[in-house]
């Protein structure tokens, strides 16, 4: 079993931002190092085991989507070629190769730009409680995982404590970023989603929802963070789609089933995973990469 990289050790460089599974390091005033680890989270907890190559697979997926979308929106990537990284990183290239990118520092909008074409997760919870999601009223009688009449922009406020982001209204976005930026973020989010979901559909996948993070560089809105990865999106196998309940996660179902099989108390420390669950989950990430990119190798 290959070893998973859970933490990067970059000498005196320490993360300037840490997510559950990815870390950002400040290189200088203009550049950041964006690293995707092999950590995996489930039920909002980072598990004790990593998935070998997960970070590399998801980085290559983001790079595929950045290129796929380059005629629609600029992005923050400067290079993902480790040979072009600042020489100060040379001692650490074995940890960084394939799973990291040097990106332009942007002024990030304090909004998670979520778009949903299906009713799932917090959207389903909000709909059950109010008949709406982010203030957008939906038809009555929808079931969990039903396809929505059209994709909807359902923004969330970034909660830095690592908890759930809080769904907010479009008016809240206007308050946070101004009307012009709010309209631009909504338009870009829906436009990108339309293109990506059509591509996913052509590859046998339902892109149920996803989250984008945008920022500005020299006053221009750019697409940042990770993009359309299984960590930032819900991908469902189209041939198994069955509305009326939760859908199998394309990438994390083995993990979820295992955690439920051991009746894990989510207040307890996150458990490690059996080798078989790790191996099968790694295969699912590779399958997502192959399906989405059409490539066989990383
Ligand atoms: N991408 C990007 C980015 C950029 N290009 N310029 C300035 N800031 C960011 C930035 C800051 N936080 N995040 C989210 C985030 C949190 C935790 C870990 C992560 F890897 C990522 C993104």
The general outline is: globular
Total DSSP helices: 7
- Proportion of residues in helical segments: 25-40%
Q: What amount of the residues lies in strands?
A: 25-35%
CATH topology of the largest domain: D-amino Acid Aminotransferase, Chain A, domain 1
- DSSP summary, beta strand count: 17
What is the domain tally?
2
SSE pattern: EEEEEHEHEEEHEEEEEHHEEEHH
CATH class call of the largest domain = Alpha Beta
**Main sheet attributes: strand count, strand direction, barrel closure:** 8 strands, antiparallel
Ligands present: the ligand N#Cc1c(N)ncnc1-c1cnn(Cc2cccc(F)c2)c1
The CATH superfamily name of the largest domain is ATP-grasp fold, B domain
Spans of 5+ residues with little confidence (pLDDT < 50)?
Answer: none
Roughly what is the average pLDDT, rounded to an integer? 96
Protein name: Phosphoribosylaminoimidazole-succinocarboxamide synthase
Pfam family, one: SAICAR_synt
GO molecular function: ATP binding; phosphoribosylaminoimidazolesuccinocarboxamide synthase activity
Enzyme class: ligase
């Amino acid at each position: 079993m290959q070893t998973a990289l859970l933490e990067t050790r970059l000498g005196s460089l320490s993360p300037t931002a840490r997510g559950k599974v990815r870390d950002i390091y400040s290189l200088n005033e203009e550049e950041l190092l964006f690293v995707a680890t092999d950590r995996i989270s489930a039920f909002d907890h980072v598990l004790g085991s990593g998935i070998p190559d997960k970070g590399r697979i998801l980085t290559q997926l983001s790079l595929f989507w950045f290129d796929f979308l380059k005629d629609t929106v600029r992005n923050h990537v400067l290079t993902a070629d480790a040979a072009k990284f600042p020489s100060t990183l040379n001692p650490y290239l074995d940890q960084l190769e394939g799973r990291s990118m040097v990106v332009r520092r942007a002024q990030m909008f304090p909004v998670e730009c979520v778009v949903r074409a299906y009713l799932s997760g917090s959207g389903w919870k909000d709909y059950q409680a109010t008949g709406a999601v982010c203030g957008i009223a939906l038809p009555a009688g929808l079931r969990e995982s039903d396809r929505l009449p059209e994709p909807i922009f359902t923004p969330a406020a970034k909660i830095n404590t690592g908890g759930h982001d809080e769904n907010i209204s479009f008016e809240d976005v206007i308050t946070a970023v101004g009307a012009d930026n709010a309209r631009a973020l909504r338009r870009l989010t829906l436009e990108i989603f339309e293109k990506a979901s059509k591509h996913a559909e052509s590859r046998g996948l339902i892109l149920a929802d996803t989250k984008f993070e945008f920022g500005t560089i020299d006053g221009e809105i750019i697409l940042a963070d990770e993009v359309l990865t299984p960590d930032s999106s819900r991908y469902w196998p189209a041939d198994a789609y069955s509305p009326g309940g939760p859908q199998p996660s394309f990438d994390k179902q083995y993990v979820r089933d295992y955690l439920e099989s051991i009746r894990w108390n989510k207040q307890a420390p996150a458990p490690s995973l059996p080798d078989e669950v790790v191996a099968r989950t790694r295969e699912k990430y590779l399958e997502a990469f192959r399906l989405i990119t059409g490539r066989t190798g990383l």
